[in-house]
Write a structure and sequence with these properties.
The chain has 19 helices and 5 strands. By secondary structure, it is an alpha/beta fold.
Length: 409
């Protein structure tokens, strides 16, 4: 068995072909030129470069430079990289302008959130969206994360309608994306969608081949990135008093900044067999990258995934050794417990967060599972097709035993 690029429909092939034809005829549109991105961002908005988030220029240069040198991007991918950079710059300016025009928003009270972290494919999405179906909790939708300022107006359109077109296009280009990670405008999404207005965002590395950007990002101080993310969430909290439940595997790498930004938060870390975690993560990333590149090497994807995961987990363990107990509450869950005894596992989450669970917890979980049944087929993978050697990986990640929970509790 070997990994294969996801097949493309006739419609998708036409979209890709038209993009490549445009790139051949208008190459200047596809150059990874920071000045061109800045020109687009300022032309499409009322902002100047003075309005962009602190540190934006070095972030933009690192991102575009890696996209050009490392990305192996097709024309659609080149467009997406530029559009993402443009959109993040404008979003940062809009969030800052919103706070400037309404200083009261900065004083909006926010209860310490529940934040779900862990490796890829460990059940974080299931737990996150399940908790988000509790009417007391707010799991942000894609549009809320991407453009939170729109929700400060009383007559804003429903969040699920704002990003519907973009979601439909992605699933047209690569239907396998919805198989490996169900997504859409009405499904809560992880924090990375709302982060990176300074172009510092681990989420970029999941969509494209960006090794030099990832290396640069690993040495960056993301305290400002997280502070600006909180500012965006405050715009949502102004008209919605629910407690936030948030999720992103990328927070695993930045626990110090997460705790600094949201003191008193509850962090739920889910643990799964590391070989399964890394193999499934490699499969996920390979599918994602196939949307924006016609050259995806599954062995290389896995190698980068293993290295990046080790960095993230080692950072998390180091922070957890030092963080005072009054700064954050940590709960470690075993993936097998979450799948095999979800009511017991979820009850522990509510207890850690200081909240009573729904009155009928079993019925609450069953209702969610009926509305969102797990897809039993489609996403299949083996360590061998990604060059992952189980014994070597387990030895390399043995340090995780320090925080691993006992299964069955």
């Amino acid at each position: 068995m070997s990994w294969q690029m996801p097949p493309r429909s006739a419609t998708a092939r036409q979209i890709y072909a038209e993009a490549e034809k445009d790139r051949a005829e208008n190459p200047q549109r596809y150059r990874f030129d920071a000045d061109r991105v800045v020109e687009r961002a300022t032309r499409r908005s009322e902002f100047t470069t003075d309005d962009f988030a602190d540190g934006w220029r070095s972030g933009l240069q690192a991102f575009l430079g890696s996209a050009e040198q490392d990305g192996r991007l097709n024309a659609v991918g080149a467009r997406m990289a530029q559009q993402s950079a443009t959109g993040r710059l404008i979003a940062g300016a809009r969030i800052a302008r919103c706070h400037k025009d309404r200083p009261d928003l900065g004083a909006v009270a926010m209860a310490p959130p529940i934040v779900i972290i862990g490796g890829w494919r460990t059940g974080t999405t299931f737990l996150f969206r399940l908790l988000g179906s509790d009417p007391r909790l707010h799991a942000p939708l894609p549009a809320e994360l991407v453009s939170p300022w729109r929700f400060t107006e009383p007559d804003h359109p429903p969040a699920a309608e704002i990003s519907a077109t973009a979601s439909q296009l992605l699933h047209t280009l690569n239907p396998d994306m919805a198989v490996v990670h169900p997504s859409g405008p009405a499904l809560p999404e992880e924090c990375v969608l709302g982060m990176g207005t300074d172009l510092r965002n681990w989420g970029f590395t999941s969509m494209m081949r960006l090794p030099s950007y990832a290396e640069w990002l690993a040495g960056q101080d993301l305290s400002g990135t997280y502070a600006r993310y909180r500012a965006g969430l405050q715009l949502l909290a102004a008209g919605d008093p629910r407690r936030f439940v948030l999720k992103a595997p990328a927070h695993t790498a930045e626990l110090d900044h997460l705790i600094e930004t949201f003191p008193g938060l509850t962090v739920v870390q889910i643990h799964r067999d590391i070989v399964s975690t890394l193999t499934s993560g490699a499969s996920l990333f390979a599918v994602y990258r196939a949307t924006y590149s016609d050259e995806v090497d599954p062995i290389e994807v896995a190698r980068q995934q293993v290295g990046q995961s080790e960095l993230w987990f080692r950072r998390a363990v180091a922070v957890r050794r030092e963080v005072p107990g009054d700064r954050a509450t940590f709960l470690d869950l075993d993936y097998r417990d979450l799948v095999g005894a979800p009511a017991r596992a979820v009850a522990r989450v509510y207890a850690a967060a200081g909240m009573p669970p729904p009155e009928d917890l079993g019925g609450f979980i069953e209702a969610y599972q009926r509305a969102h049944p797990r897809d039993a087929g489609g996403h299949r993978y083996t360590p061998e097709e990604f060059g992952i050697r189980p014994d070597e990986v387990r030895e390399r990640f043995a340090f995780l035993e320090e925080i691993a929970p006992e299964q069955g509790l």
